[in-house]
Design brief:
The protein has 193 residues and is mainly α. It folds into three domains: 18-63; 79-120; 123-170. 68% of the residues lie in helices and 3% in strands. The chain is built from five helices and two strands; from the N terminus they run E-E-H-H-H-H-H. The chain has helices spanning 20-62, 66-83, 85-120, 123-144, 156-168, and strands at residues 5-7, 13-15. A two-stranded antiparallel sheet has the order 1-2. A hairpin with a 5-residue loop joins strand 1 (5-7) and strand 2 (13-15). Helix 4 (123-144) crosses helix 5 (156-168). It is rod-shaped.
């Protein structure tokens, strides 16, 4: 084939300066070459199919499954990603962020501790703490001593009222309770109707 060949707008090969007879010979050579290439392509497809089938049989005999191949491919892909520069940069950025977040939460925890410490030093907290400790102390004393009111044990509410009354300077009633309109009377003092 000569170097003077070109392709027209229709995609057909045209040889410039060739006679009709030379053109017909060239066309038959091209057709023969095309047929040979198509036959080789068909043969290669058949060989590839046969080799693929043989590879499948060998893998089956070796115990290699499609799932195993998939898992192996995935593991290799993950390994490649982890070794990539982008992954390394992202991983270091995440670690730095985690460290900053941890230190931030540590700072918040210490701030809360400081606020609770400051709250303990307020007058209202101390007053409440004193009332509770006094009431608990009264309950303990009354429980050890057998309590007032004919051997019964004083309730926490009664002990709290008693402790509050003592702190305010009121004298409690002889039975250990503060007489008020809201104080319930024990069952044994009620007269049956």
């Amino acid at each position: 084939m000569s170097q003077s060949g070109s392709i027209n707008d229709m995609g057909q090969g045209v040889e410039v300066g060739m006679t009709a007879e030379e053109l017909e010979v060239a066309r038959s050579e091209w057709q023969a070459e095309l047929n040979q290439i198509e036959d080789e392509i068909q043969t290669l497809k058949q060989v590839l199919t046969a080799k693929t089938r043989r590879a499948y049989e060998l893998k089956r005999k070796l115990g290699v499954s499609s799932w195993g191949e998939f898992a192996q491919d995935m593991n290799q892909g993950i390994k490649n990603v982890r070794e990539s520069t982008a992954y390394q940069k992202t991983e270091s950025a995440i670690k730095a962020t985690a460290e900053k977040t941890t230190s931030l939460f540590g700072g918040i925890g210490s701030a809360v501790s400081q606020k609770l410490g400051a709250l303990k030093n307020t007058e209202s907290f101390r007053s409440m703490e004193e009332r509770v400790s006094s009431a608990v102390g009264s309950v303990k004393v009354n429980t050890r001593m057998g309590g007032s009111r004919s051997g019964s044990v004083q309730s926490f509410d009664e002990a709290l009222r008693e402790a509050t009354a003592q702190q305010q300077g009121n004298n409690p009633a002889p039975n250990g309770s503060t007489p008020t309109a809201a104080t319930p009377q024990p069952e044994e003092n009620k007269v049956p109707s």
